Each structure stands twice: as C-alpha cells, then as structure tokens.
Amino acid sequence: MTDTTTPARDLMSKFDPLIAERQALIDSGVTDPFAIVMEQVKSPTEAVIKGKDTILLGTYNYMGMTFDPDVVQAGKDALDQFGSGTNGSRMLNGTFRDHVGVEQALRDFYGMSGAIVFSTGYMANLGMISTLAGKGDYVILDADSHASIYDGCKQGVAEIVRFRHNSVEDLDKRLGRLPAEAGKLVVLEGVYSMLGDIAPLKDMVAVAKKHGCMVLVDEAHSMGFFGPNGRGVYEDQGLEGEVDFVVGTFSKSVGTVGGFCVSNHPKFEAIRLACRPYIFTASLPPSVVATAEVSIRKLMHAHNKRAHLWENARTLHNGLTEMGFTLGTKTPDSAVIAVLLDDQEQAVAMWQALLDGGLYVNMARPPATPAGIFLLRCSVCAEHSSAQISTILKMFRAAGQAVGAIG
Ligand code: PMP
C-alpha cells in the first residue's frame, strides 16, 4: 500500500544545506546575525538588543525621521481618523485621503508631474520594470543590481541584458549589439548599497540616450541628502529632466514603509491600470502614508540634517581609513560605509565583538554582496551625534584589534 500521508518528495529538503550552514554558525557560539531582535527602540540611533543599550549603525534611517514628533503625530492622527488599515487595493476601496496626499508630496519633492505609491520599494521595482518592459523589449541592468530589480526582470517577459558594475564602456558595448528599433529600459541605481559606491549616472544616461533607451534610476539610498533638493544622485549629477522614471522607498530616509515611482511622462498614470504589483495587493495603512507625507515634506527643508549626515559620513570614513580598515569606497561617497573583511569567520567575529561592545552594524555576505565579499555595512544617520561617532570609532578599533582585522 502506498503511504498517502508522506509526500513522494519533501519539498523542504532542498533547504537542508542552508539549515546546516546556519546551525554550524550558531554552534560556533556566536549570535545569529540574521535573527536580531530590537527589544526596545529609544531613538533613531539607540536600541536595546539582548538587554543591552546599543548604538544603531546598521539601519537605513539615514535622515533619522522615525522619531520626528510631527511624523509620529501624523501617524497617530490618521490611526484615530481612518483606522488601522484599508482592507483593499488602491484600485478599489484602498485609496484614502493620505494616499493622495503622499503622492502630491512626492510630486512636490521631485518637481515631477506623476507619482505612484506602492506597498514597498521592492514592489515598486517589481511593478515598474515588469510593466514597462514587455514582450520583445529589453531591460539592461547593472550586474550588481538590487534583488528587487532582478526580480522585476523575472516577473516580466522582456529580454535581460546585464553589464559590468558601473562600467559605462560595457553598457555602451552591450547596447550597441541590440536592435536599434527595440524598446529598451536601462535600470540604474544612484547608490549601490553594499559597497556604498555611486553610479557615474551622467555618463551612463548619456550612453543610454545615445542608444535610444528609456532610463529608470532607483534612488533608494540617496533620497533626502544628494542634490540641492535631496532628490538623489541624478539631481546631484545635473540630470533633472533626463531620467524617465525615479524609483524610491519610504523605508530608508522617509522612515516608514512603502515604495514609489515618480515621472514626468504624460502617460504615466496608465501604470495604475496595468501594473500587477500595484493592483493585486492591499494599499498601505493610513497611518503609514500620513507619516510618509509629513516626513517627505520635512525632508524638503532638512538642510541642517543633510549637512550633519555628510559630516558624520566623512568623520567615520576618515577614522576607519586611518585605523587601517579596507572600505568599500576610497572616499566617503554616500551614507553607506562598508568595512571589508577577509572571510566569513573574521566578519562574524568582528560583528559579534561590535555587538558585545554595544554597536549594531549589518553583516553582509554573498549572495547579497558582489564578488564573494564579506563585509560589515555601516549606515550613517543624521541623528548620530558627533560623540556617538567618536564612540563608534573607538568600538571599531577595539573590535578590529581583537579579531586581527587591523594591527
Ligand atoms: N531598491 C534598493 C536599491 C534597495 O536597497 C531596497 C531595500 N534595501 C529596495 C529597493 C527595496 O525597498 P523596500 O525596503 O521599500 O522594499
């Protein structure tokens, strides 16, 4: 008799190597870097982890908006007035006053005619890329693109062409091989978040335009502090009006959750009618869009915060360089400072030593990182005080010496 209760093949068995790898890490006596719990969050830069007061240097809270009193109040008011959720898609019953409000705030922030909000930044890329590039079209993307960009390609039916990370020459070469008349979307990121390096957007956009492509730039890691109006690397490099679509997120500088795309394209609104990750999911809760709207409007005037964020990035980058650490970039190009380590063992040991000392950073490894690199990613916040940055540097020196990463 066949056993009808046991499947012929346990589909979960494909995860055995992952389970074993995680177990080996835990058995080595370290804290699991991918199972951290914030027991309390006291401010944008401080939390309690494992009962210990910890400085946060591994969140994307670049502009420190999560505890801004106006932002928090807007969320509370919306919760009182509109309830806890929308129970539906934007297409049907899920468009509330503040979804419209936050889209207007985005149009004002970017100075563009169109703005569409998605439930996350991941879904904004998934939706925009898969909807824009159809059958017979091409998506041309940087090899180090974020997972959401790759997944947007997989979700769609266009042909995919990758070029070498940040190589204008390779982009040009690959575009030159594609049919001149085909629809082409070049997808770039302003800041690449693993190493913290920025894209040579000016040259890349020029090459893309030369080959008749449309351009989408993901500015997730630059909003609020690149360019005169904080619009991103594209604004910083003088590309206003040359980029067709800008994708962003509320989960970083804005300090809540959600994603968006802005554009000046006259037919942009049609995306709402065709984009599956926009249509077939519930819209963001009213409290979330209300906080996002206030945060975005405040970011338009956050010049002091912006200046302090850059000062923190420079101080941390210079201090770590002087200590002898190898960093992801030679100069402080963004708010991400990546500390490169020799291997997984050293990275985990260093991460653990920092945590034990009261500092949280992100542990990153392949496949999230390019070229098999193990690194500790530091994301600087505008709300880190100068005293905290000094403390952080001391913690890095102690941990780096303890694990032999520096002399
Ligand atoms: N794009 C990039 C470049 C990102 O780094 C991320 C998130 N880390 C996203 C998109 C997705 O954003 P979200 O967290 O809003 O889904």
Automatic annotation (TrEMBL):
Answer yes or no on keyword Chloroplast: no
Q: What is an example of a Pfam family matching this protein?
A: Aminotran_1_2
The cofactors named for this UniProt entry are: pyridoxal 5'-phosphate
Which keywords does the record carry? Pyridoxal phosphate, Transferase
Query: Which molecular-function annotations from GO does this UniProt entry contain?
Result: pyridoxal phosphate binding; transferase activity
Checking InterPro entries in the record gives: Aminotrans_II_pyridoxalP_BS, Aminotransferase_I/II_large, AON_synthase_class-II, PyrdxlP-dep_Trfase, PyrdxlP-dep_Trfase_major, PyrdxlP-dep_Trfase_small
All copies of the Aminotransferase class I/classII large domain together span 53-393
Q: Which domain of life is it from?
A: Bacteria
Q: Does the keyword Transferase apply?
A: yes
Matching PROSITE patterns, A to Z?
AA_TRANSFER_CLASS_2 (PS00599)
Family from the record: Belongs to the class-II pyridoxal-phosphate-dependent aminotransferase family.
By what name is this protein known? Answer: Serine palmitoyltransferase
